[in-house]
Design a protein that fits this description.
This protein is an alpha/beta fold and about 240 residues long. About 40% of the residues lie in helices and about 15% in strands. It contains seven helices and nine strands; from the N terminus they run ββαβααβαβαβββαβα. The two termini are about 20 Å apart.
Length: about 240
Amino acid sequence: MRKFVGVKSNIHLIGNAHLDPAWLWRFEEGFEAFLATCRSALARMRETPTFIFSCSSASCYEFVEQTDPELFKQIQQAVRDNRWEIVGGWWVEPDCNIPTGESFVRQALYCQRYFKEKFGKTCTTGYCIDSFGHHANLPQLLTQSGMDSYVFMRPEAHELPLPQSLFRWQSQSGDEVLAYRIPFHYSNFKHSITEKLALLEGSSEYDAARPWMLFYGVGNHGGGPTKQQIVEILEQELRMSS
C-alpha cells in the first residue's frame, strides 16, 4: 500500500502512526498506545498483502521488546519482509528547535545501534513530522548519522510557503538531505484519502511529473491505518485502473 499511481500523477500513500508518548501522557498510557498500534498494523498486513506500515522511535520498539517479546518478533519478521519500514533514526521524535547538536548525535547513535542490532539495518530516512520547527544544522546531523532524507510536516503551508514540497535542504556545512513536507497532515483527522487526492491535484504547487507522498492513518494518539482507509485506497486504485 506504499504506492498509488494515478492517471496524471505518481503518488505514494504512506500508512503511518505518529505518537508522542512523552507529551502530557502517563508513561503507561503512551506505550500502551504503541503496543495497540503495532498489533493493529500487523493485523492490517495479514488482511491486505500490499499494505506497508511506517513507524519511528527506537524507545517505543524497545518497550515492545521488553513487554511483549512475541509481538516484537512479529515486527522483526515484518521488517525482514519489507512490510514494515523503520524510520526516524532517533530514539524519540524530538523538538527540533532547542536540543543541542550533541543531543541529536546521541539520539542517532543509540537508535541506529539499536536498529542495527534488532533489525539488521539502520535508518536512512529522518522522520520528525510533528516538531514545530527544524534546526538549520539538521542536514549535517542527519547525514553524519547515516540518513540522506528527511520527512516533516511543520511549519505547514499556511505558516511558511515553500516553492515545492520536495527539495534539497543544505546546511551551512554543505551537507544536504532530500527533504519532503507532508501536505494535508500526517493523519486523516480532517480529510479522507479521497479528499487528500483531490486537494493535491487542485493545489497550486501540484506537478504531475513529480513524485508525491500523502500520509494516512490515525494519530496523534496512535492507531495507524484503519480497515476503512485501506478499502478506500483499494477502491481508488481500482477506479484509476479501469
